[in-house]
Specification:
3 helices
């Protein structure tokens, strides 16, 4: 016999005074038959054995307890036999059993229906329903404690205990429903560990108080050959209080406490409802699976008025289904010390709605996990250190607060083996460990890993861990991205020490990107960066893109994946300011980089930093080389720390317009630059190679050039490669107009400085490389409003500068036109001591 529970009837009345069940109606007096048994019946009827269906006794607290069966159990034709039958079924602690007197208080330790009499070869208790109720001396309803109900091998109807039950065993391999319904005041195992086994279906479980430390297992019935003959499913679970495991801080006496507070159904549960207020819920304990609901197949729905909280035990405080879960509603899902504690896991999950998810110190604690699809998750508050994970696809995820890292790696994460249809979150905050506070898709290598859309209300914040505070897809696309700002309007993508921290990385295409706030890189490589491995439709940053010390930090990069015609393309870029750090800046930081093409770009200021090609625009350097549409800037300044600001377009650049100054910059165009304009130009090099396909007599490498102010210490070179080498003797320049003066600068088409001592002297030659006899290198016209000058002798006595081509259409400076030979005889026109206008011979090459 298993251990008996302590009596808790008085405690029950204190805890649940308002939940007392209505007292059973007083049993109707049994009409005594007129027979030779009448004297004996006189002893039995008023005492414990009231009728063939009813027994009463005095509980230890003085209440009268009535056990009433739905059909006759006892054979009253023989009082002695009836008493023996009752004593075989009823086992008491204290008192004198079924002896015809209720004068001795006693507790019902065991109700053993396997000991009921047989009739026609069958146990008469098979299929019986019964109630166990109590009332006080005044007739008001009360509660009763029952140790165990044993009906192993017997299917039962409806069973009701108006108090605490520790254990029940029933059901049959031959009957589909092992127990039609079970209604209890509480399912309580004070001693702990009692296991109730029901073979076949349990129609419903209703508990008015707590399900505490007990273990209810509903199993399939099967034949000797292993064929399932009865489905072990629970129709519904309804607990008004809490589902509780063995709560405590330490394990004592070597007890494992495994499965204490566990409801386990082999073939599914229709629905689960726990709690009547926010203080109720599922509370894990010390042992594995303590405080848990486990289904071998499906769970229809789960509604919990309060929270699911893990404990020390593995998988404690959990809801587990190998099949599908319809829906889950609760307030808080919280992990603890136990691995897998505070977790909802299923084959699939239709929806989860809750307020907060908190991870624990146990591995994989505090979260939602599905093997199959997870259709939707809505978290009103935060996910802190917890997780939402599907090994397949996730539908819509909405988190009103922050997705926040915990203390360990991969804490505070969202992960999908496949795709996520939409993601909406307040903010992402990474931590000190890798992959914390982040979102990942495509973790299954055979899945695409797309994200339909991303909305982050208040920014991504990287931490010290690699990929912390980031969104990463593996071989997947992102439909659109919106990142908002915090209360001070400064958020967006914010990098950390970890590589790719505070970043968005899509190993596929990305749709429209709208960032309200900044991209601020840090010391981590690629921190606060945005990467696509296919087309990036557009990016609009209302704030600034600020590089950090990390290589590639705050970069916007569309990579060229071979096999896609649009790979590496960026449709359009709109940004307030882009700049790299002036000191200790990372290479490629604050860089706009499209390995395919760039449709157009409009940037307030492009400011280079100390890192190589930081504060730059790079286009068309991928496997499928392409070019750029119009680029418009208000300022292009690379004077800081040596000036690394670069615009490098390996294909064609339709136009480059800078409203203000261009300072200390490099502009390289692999093919032709359609048009160039700037406010002023200083300490800058501009090169362009020439048209991809020449015209019959034209190869315009640089079209119209308009500088509204001065040109100083700069070179504009047509017919030169990205690397700065002369490669095209046919290169031409359109009309050049300068509103200010021209100082110590070169304007060259299709020529090379042979001795590398500066243009404008006799060693200027026709460039090597492409040379179409029908095309001559040419500058259409040059008009300079101010004066043309070189450098004073006090600066350099032997430098020189030139306007050089095979043909120059016209030249005018400071209101004075200069006549040209137009016969390619290399007769220079000296414009200043160290500045010459030269038309080089057609045959003069290196």
């Amino acid at each position: 016999m298993k251990r008996r529970p302590a009596l808790v009837s008085r405690l029950w009345r204190k805890l649940f005074p308002a939940r007392q069940m209505t007292a059973a109606k007083p049993p109707q007096p049994v009409r005594r038959p007129v027979s030779s048994l009448e004297p004996l019946e006189g002893r039995i009827a008023p005492a414990t054995l009231i009728s063939a269906t009813t027994v009463s006794y005095q509980d230890l607290d003085g209440d009268t307890v009535t056990v009433k069966f739905s059909k006759a159990i006892f054979d009253l034709t023989s009082p002695t036999l009836a008493t023996a039958q009752a004593n075989a079924i009823f086992s008491f602690t204290g008192g004198s059993g079924v002896d015809g007197s209720n004068s001795s208080p006693q507790a019902l330790n065991l109700l053993d229906l396997t000991k009921a009499p047989f009739k026609s070869g069958a146990n008469v208790a098979a299929g019986v329903s019964f109630t166990i109720s109590a009332e006080t001396a005044s007739g008001s309803g009360s509660t009763v404690d029952v140790g165990r109900i044993n009906a192993a091998g017997l299917a039962l109807g409806s069973v009701r205990v108006d108090g605490a039950l520790a254990e029940i065993d029933c059901g049959s391999n031959a009957v589909a429903v092992g127990l039609k319904s079970l209604t209890l005041g509480s399912f309580t195992s004070a001693a702990g560990g009692e296991k109730s086994v029901i073979v076949g279906g349990l129609g419903s479980l209703k508990v008015l108080g707590d399900f505490s430390q007990a273990h209810l297992q509903v199993i399939n019935g099967s034949s000797l050959l292993g064929k399932v003959t009865a489905i072990g499913k629970i129709g519904s679970v309804d607990i008004d209080g809490s589902l509780v495991g063995k709560v405590g801080a330490t394990i004592v006496d070597g007890t494992t406490y495994a499965n204490w507070g566990l409801i386990d159904a082999a073939a599914g549960i229709g629905s689960v409802k726990i709690g009547s207020n926010a203080s109720h819920g599922i509370k894990g304990g010390l042992g594995a699976n303590s405080g848990a609901i486990v289904s071998g197949t499906d769970i229809g729905s789960v509604t919990i008025s309060g929270s699911v909280v893990g404990g020390f035990g593995t998988n404690s405080g959990s809801i587990q289904a190998l099949g599908k879960i319809g829906s889950v509603k609760l307030i808080i899902l919280q992990g603890a010390e136990g691995g897998g504690s505070g977790v909802i896991t299923g084959g699939t999950l239709q929806s989860a709605t809750l307020v907060h998810i908190y991870g624990g110190t146990g591995i994989g604690s505090g979260g939602i996990l599905t093997v199959g699809n997870l259709t939707s998750v809505k978290v009103g508050g935060t996910v802190s250190g917890g997780f939402i994970e599907s090994q397949a696809n996730i539908g819509a995820i909405e988190i009103g607060g922050t997705l926040h890292a915990g203390s360990g790696a991969s804490t505070g994460r969202i992960s999908a083996g496949g795709s996520i249809s939409s993601l909406e979150v307040g903010s992402l905050v990474g931590g000190s460990e890798a992959n914390s506070g982040s979102v990942f898709t495509g973790t299954n290598p055979f899945s695409a890993g797309n994200i339909g859309s991303v909305k982050v209300a208040a920014g991504l914040y990287g931490g010290a861990g690699a990929n912390s505070g980031s969104i990463i897809t593996s071989q997947g696309n992102i439909g659109s991205i919106k990142v908002g700002s915090d209360s001070v309007g400064s958020s967006g993508l914010n990098g950390g020490v970890g590589s790719f921290s505070g970043a968005i990385f899509a190993e596929g295409t990305v749709g429209k990107v709208k960032i309200t706030g900044n991209l601020i890189g840090s010391s981590g490589a690629d921190s606060a960066s945005l990467h696509s491995f296919g087309k990036l439709a557009s990016i609009n940053v209302s704030g600034n893109v600020i590089g950090g010390a990390g290589e590639g930090s705050a970069a916007i990069f569309s990579h060229d994946q071979i096999g896609s015609g649009s790979a590496g393309n960026i449709g359009s870029v709109t940004i307030s300011i882009v700049f790299g750090l002036s000191e200790n800046g990372g290479a490629g930081a604050a860089q706009i980089h499209a390995e395919g093409s760039l449709g157009k770009a409009r940037i307030g200021a492009l400011v280079g930093g100390s890192g190589a090609k930081s504060g730059s625009i790079i286009v068309g350097d991928g496997a499928i080389s392409s070019g750029s549409g119009a680029i418009r800037l208000n300022l292009f300044d690379a004077t800081a720390a040596g000036g690394a600001g670069t615009i490098e377009v390996h294909g064609r650049l339709a136009s480059l317009a800078v409203k203000g100054a261009v300072r200390s910059a490099t502009i390289h165009v692999g093919e032709d630059l359609g048009a160039f304009s700037a406010g002023t130009l200083s300490d800058t090099i501009i090169t362009a190679g020439g048209q991809a396909e020449q015209g019959r007599t034209a190869d315009v490498a640089i079209g119209k050039i308009t500088i509204s102010g001065n040109v100083e210490n700069s070179q504009i070179l047509a017919g030169f490669s990205i690397a700065g080498n002369a490669v095209n003797a046919d290169a031409q320049i359109g009309a050049v107009k300068v509103g200010g003066s021209w100082s110590a600068s070169d304007l060259v088409a299709g020529a090379v400085d042979f001795d590398d001592d500066g243009f404008g002297n006799a060693d200027d030659r026709k460039a090597p490389g492409a040379d179409n006899a029908a095309i001559v290198s040419r500058i259409a016209s040059i008009t300079i409003a101010g004066v043309v000058s070189g450098t004073p002798d006090t600066v350099s006595a032997d430098d020189h500068f030139g306007f050089v081509a095979q043909e120059i259409g016209s030249f005018k400076a400071a209101g004075t036109a200069r006549s040209l030979t137009k016969n390619f005889t290399d007769q220079p026109v000296q414009l200043a001591t160290d500045v010459a206008l030269r038309e080089i011979p057609l045959t003069a090459t290196i």
